[in-house]
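Support reply, case 0932

Customer input (verbatim):
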Amino acid sequence: MQHVKSFRAVAFGIALGSAFAANLATTPAQAGASILIEAESGKVLRAENATYPWYPASTTKLMTLYVTLQAMKQGRVAPDTLFTVSRTAMAQGPTKMGYAVGTQITVDNALKMMMVKSANDMAVLLAEGVDGSVENFADDMTRTAHRLGMSQSNFVNPNGLPADGQIVSARDMAILARSLIRDFPEYNFYWHIPAIKYGRRIVRNYNTLLGRYPGADGMKTGFICASGFNLVATATRNGRQLIAVVLGSPSGAARAVKAAEILESGFAQNPLSWLTPALGTVDNLTPINADPPNLHDQVCGPHRKRPAAEDEDMDAGGETGAGVDTAFSAMLSSLRAPTPKGAALLSDLGAITPTIVYTGPTRTPDQLAKLNVAADEPGVPRHKKKGGKAIATEATGDGASADKSKKKGQRAATSAKPAAARAQ
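Our regenerated output:
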């Protein structure tokens, strides 16, 4: 009888292993790619198409953050170093801050704008300020990525706007997230910020796990039509931090739910975990030699009722004034997913305290207090509503608008060939 039980356990383990292997072999264009690892050990807990090449979209900005923080650690720049908006930076497609050529912004403020609003112009501002040009910075990004063990990664621009040569994998992005946590613990607030405020405008972080998934503490979203909706997310419970990477989701809501589900599975105690084949560490996963899938038709095809955009699961383009929670709360029903205990993985988003950002030199606490109640931040383009009231120009999507606007300017700004990844 004992032999029968042992045989059944082994057979069950083999079946689980076969199912897991089949899951790893799923067609990337249909299933996307994902990975879950422990931040401290690098141990892989789950993986699906994790070493398949992918377009990173604005998760690219995590590498821009790493290279900039590296320059700060080396003493080449400081948080209060002023960089100047160039024509190249201004020419970037939305999402962007939209500051005029000649506007000066500190490294600290540019990083906050880039990480929360996913501002493409701020990524270029940092690239030019740190290394002199987008091209030099992109080379720096790729060299740094390879040094970190991101063997599948190549970068040609600092913001993730469409380009054939801009390639990563879920594995590589997990390595990058782990490297940021390990190498720059003193700067971890840059990927924790729930919202920024400039003038009267408040912009929530596109990472909707922040403030809604228990323990969520980072990092960055991304979207272009070719990549689908991407998310690198971190969460910590009882001193244990996990990193989840989700690439190729069909919507912003779907990527948030999937990331939450993956993280939850890692935090949950699984009594059958000993039956699951060990996956080793993230550094040891074998890369796949293939071309990245182009998800344009699935994500941005004519079947959609409205154009896909990075901020589609945010209210009013992701930007509001005082009533910051109004419309956003109405969307939470579509973002809920039950845990085995029946509770919601993603809760209602509570009150937040946005971080104030601004142009010009670093300001004192007293100056910031005055800025908090001041009028709109100077330098942001404005246009007229039908009623004649001037409002600040809104930017849409991490790369959605960039897929179809100012193509000539983007090519020059990113030094990229006409990309198969570019959504049309």
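We compared this against your earlier run and they match. Two observations from our side: The chain has 13 helices and 13 strands. The mean pLDDT is 79. Please reopen the case if you see a mismatch on your end.
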